[in-house]
Amino acid sequence: MKRIAFMVLKCLPKVPYWFYRVCKYGSTEDTHTEQERYNYLRMIIKKVNKSGRVTVEGYGIQHIPQKNGFILFPNHQGMFDMLAIIDTCCQPLGVVVKKEAANVILVKQVIALLRGLSIDRQDIRESMKVIGKMTEEVKGGRNYVIFAEGTRSKNGNQILPFKAGTFKSAVNAKCPIVPVALIDSFRPFDISSIKKETVQVHYLKPIEPEEYAGKKTTEIAEIVHNRIQEEIDAVRCRQNYYNIENKF
What we know:
This protein is of the alpha/beta class.
């Protein structure tokens, strides 16, 4: 939380105007395109991340589909995750968040700007309605981010099992599934420090509809989970090797 306070203080002169514009873009009466709204939010996030001494590195950007109508499935490490994803992804995104977070000030306004959805994890019927709504929007050409773990991992770069139900929207929409590996995304807000941090976002090769056709959502969840964990482990292994080499 120390870094959040530092970010707010560094950006304080601009915060009221940014908040006003975000609220305006989030209004149902706003006439800006989705790309225009997203670009404005992305500009703010890049400045906020820089002010907070966080460098976000994006890898595999070429794997982000150029044609709209896809879903990103990242691992979930904490509150910084969406800041890292929006910082590195130029394609406009909606997001599905848990109901408890959807009413938090600023989060609420950002979700409105992104035309995102909130989900009550305790209400199965309501959750299915949200998944159905997302499916229809993806079919119509919108892109989404959904965190398949359902909750953030408390074990840093070790991810939790993925919930199969979150993949129903992709299966029903017959859209590309893009696994996203977030590395060290927990560090900016979980570590009580304002020292420089680097977060990596790795966009992996999309899984096209013809590749997962006929598979159960449990199988798809496991495939995406394993690809992300393998990428994280490979990157961490290279980092450890590099650190050892530099000691000699």
